[in-house]
Amino acid sequence: MERLEDFDITCVLAENPGPFTLDGSNSWLIGRDPCWIVDPGPPIDSHLDRLAGEAAVRGGVGGIAITHDHADHSGGLEGLLERVGDVPVGAAAVSRASELLADGDDFGPLTAIATPGHAPDHLAFLAGEALFTGDAVLGHGSVYISPDENALAGYLNALDRLIALELNLLCPGHGGPIFGDEARARLIEYRDHRLDRERMLIEALEGGARSSDEMLAHAWGDVPAILKPAAEATLAAHIDKLAAEGRLPAGAQRPDIGEYGGL
Ligand SMILES: [Zn+2]
Questions:
Q1: Per the structure, how many domains does the chain have?
Q2: What pTM does this model have?
Q3: I need a labelling partner for 163 at 20 to 30 A (CA). Which of 133, 171, 227, 250 fits?
Q4: Which InterPro entries does this entry report, sorted A to Z (predicted)?
């Protein structure tokens, strides 16, 4: 089981590469007669044409699941519905869903798993031993955490639940698929990465760092300049977690992340 075909899954990669989207956004098709789609991807006509074409080869679309309401994942929804017809749309994002999904809900062959952190409405989808992770876990690199109440604690809890699953395949929102034992290893790597950042942040605070630049320099020093806004947002999520746990020293500055919504 080292190929997507063994799982009857296909990836259609959108032409929107970038620092946050890696090679581009992945739209996934599962099964056939009908197939089910995870994430329409961005509103790029050529991408939606290819996705609809692949779906037609697979005997049409049973439904479209959305991992989270960011433009690079859900922006193509209207365009895709125009191409494949008015099929059910399963999401936790109220504005997108014809079937509002919550943790544990089934949507065709998919089971929704709440995975907040990158976005409050984020869902992963489980189909057999395949897990569609959206932006909760990527093919490579790490994700940014969008700070809102309990975002990081919720994210770590979700990762622990995913790690406990019987998995043979990860299908991320960006980057290539991950097969076999590597799937679980990748999830553990993501959890450990977050815990490492927290450890480095606590070290910085114990060393007297209070400004967000000092904390970033110590705990996110390896992050390229173009990703600094994402690192700041993630730092804010870490600070919120420490504050909620009563572990944040007085005077520590939460970065002003303004309107940054990221991707
Ligand atoms: Zn994304």
A1: 2
A2: 0.94
A3: 227
A4: Metallo-B-lactamas (IPR001279), RibonucZ/Hydroxyglut_hydro (IPR036866), Sec-metab_biosynth-thioest (IPR050662), WH-like_DNA-bd_sf (IPR036388)
